């Protein structure tokens, strides 16, 4: 083919990102090998038939033409109402633009915050698309570590000392760590943003999955409403990953600019999906709690299985559908351990290294199979780690 742009070639970056393991697991499954799949953050239930009925009815009633580009008024209003209820920040429909999922929202937000070559900060560990999303928008990603020893929360001094940049991307509840940022962390982020005149892109797609404390949005801190773009989505809160329905909430002027971007990219989201989104949001907070419930239970199972041993330790699991497990006591990297787990136990998890340097030596377990199978897989994971750690204690030289 004729030469493509450097920008598109640079999206995936260089080197292994640990997804090899994911494809290896998929290959095994294709060959008929039973593998317990704990890799991807997707519910083990499908979208509620009642939501699908709403989608079908909307389509049958004619919502199949071009839809309003920033989102149909009812959906913008419903998102504004939800964001205001969850975060306490005054929000109106003019603050909302509807996007094809949270991923497209992350991309659009980075298009808004900087010019080609500008730096964009993000916290490490991170959702693996972050650096590529930033590069696709023409910006240069710079990771700021949130270290295991600091409970995987970013430290104000590190953020303040990071290189000159236009924006900071944060994610709470966090994928992959399960950490929910506390008030002190969010206040620190807000102080840094104001002092350094940064945009903050706050990825809050897991805001309905909170196991301890409550969800706080950095947009609620003084001086933040005018510099904060909150990314949300129905993927996780309503088990609607395939519907591709998300949003950005921000200053009305920013929404006007994002509208221009939407006009030249997706040109709006299918009206029947937006109407299904209105129906889904109308089900309220109790419905969202029901969708989150299996993960809450499995978080309890995780804590039960890990109790009484100290080879495998979980990062603070305060939210989101994952357990980030520290397997450094085995002497293996996260990738090395994940490979042995796949080969020896036929359990697929993702290496912490796929999520950045700060989660090296960990594996991320998605709590996305039914309770008994989940518990059994986790027990086998812990037993394997125990065996490897015991061998290492006996033959330390051999294993290095
Ligand atoms: N942000 C985070 C932290 C995620 O984990 C995901 C998906 O797993 C997304 C954004 C994107 O979600 P979607 O595009 O389905 O809304």
Structure explained in plain terms:
This protein is of the alpha/beta class. The chain has helices spanning 6-9, 19-30, 49-60, 73-87, 101-113, 130-136, 156-161, 183-196, 234-237, 252-263, 271-282, 284-306, 334-345, 371-394, 396-399, and strands at 36-37, 96-99, 119-124, 140-145, 167-171, 199-203, 228-233, 246-249, 313-314, 322-326, 347-348, 350-351, 362-366. It has 15 helices and 13 strands. A seven-stranded mixed beta sheet has the order 2-8-7-6-5-3-4, with helices on both faces. Strands 9-10-13-12 form a four-stranded antiparallel beta sheet. It is globular, with a radius of gyration of 21 Å. It starts with 5 loop residues before the first helix and ends with a helix. The model has no long low-confidence stretch (mean pLDDT 95).
């Amino acid at each position: 083919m004729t030469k493509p742009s450097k920008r598109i070639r640079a999206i995936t970056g260089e080197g292994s990102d640990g997804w090899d393991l994911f494809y290896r697991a998929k290959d095994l499954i294709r060959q008929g090998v039973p593998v317990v799949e704990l890799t991807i953050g997707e519910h083990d239930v499908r979208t509620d038939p009642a939501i699908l009925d709403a989608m079908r009815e909307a389509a049958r009633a004619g919502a199949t033409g071009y839809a309003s580009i920033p989102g149909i008024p009812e959906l913008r209003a419903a998102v504004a109402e939800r964001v205001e209820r969850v975060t306490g920040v005054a929000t109106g429909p003019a603050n909302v633009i509807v996007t094809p999922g949270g991923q497209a929202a992350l991309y659009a937000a980075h298009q808004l915050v900087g010019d080609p070559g500008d730096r964009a900060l993000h916290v490490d560990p991170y959702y693996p698309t972050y650096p590529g999303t930033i590069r696709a928008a023409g910006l240069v990603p710079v990771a700021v570590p949130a270290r295991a020893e600091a409970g995987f929360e970013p430290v104000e001094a590190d953020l303040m000392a990071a290189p000159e940049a236009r924006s900071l991307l944060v994610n709470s509840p966090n994928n992959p760590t399960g950490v929910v940022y506390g008030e002190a962390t969010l206040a620190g982020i807000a102080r840094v943003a104001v002092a350094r005149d940064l945009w903050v892109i706050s990825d809050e797609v897991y805001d309905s999955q909170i196991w301890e404390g409550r969800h706080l949005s950095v947009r609620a801190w003084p001086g933040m409403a005018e510099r904060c773009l909150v990314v949300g989505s129905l993927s996780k809160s309503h088990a609607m990953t395939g519907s591709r329905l998300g949003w950005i909430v921000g200053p009305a002027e920013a929404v006007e600019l994002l509208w221009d971007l939407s006009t030249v990219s997706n040109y709006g989201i299918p009206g029947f999906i937006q109407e299904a989104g209105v129906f889904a949001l109308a089900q309220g907070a109790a419905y969202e709690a029901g969708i989150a419930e299996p993960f809450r239970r499995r978080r309890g199972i995780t804590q039960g299985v890990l109790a009484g041993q100290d080879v495998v330790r979980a990062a603070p699991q305060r939210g989101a559908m994952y357990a980030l497990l520290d397997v450094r006591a085995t002497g293996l990297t996260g990738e090395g351990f994940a490979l042995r787990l796949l080969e020896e136990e036929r359990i697929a998890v993702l290496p912490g290294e796929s999520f950045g340097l700060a989660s090296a030596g960990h594996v991320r377990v998605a709590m996305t199979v039914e309770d008994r199978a989940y518990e059994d897989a986790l027990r086998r994971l812990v037993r394997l780690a125990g065996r490897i750690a015991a061998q290492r204690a006996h033959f330390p030289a051999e294993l290095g």
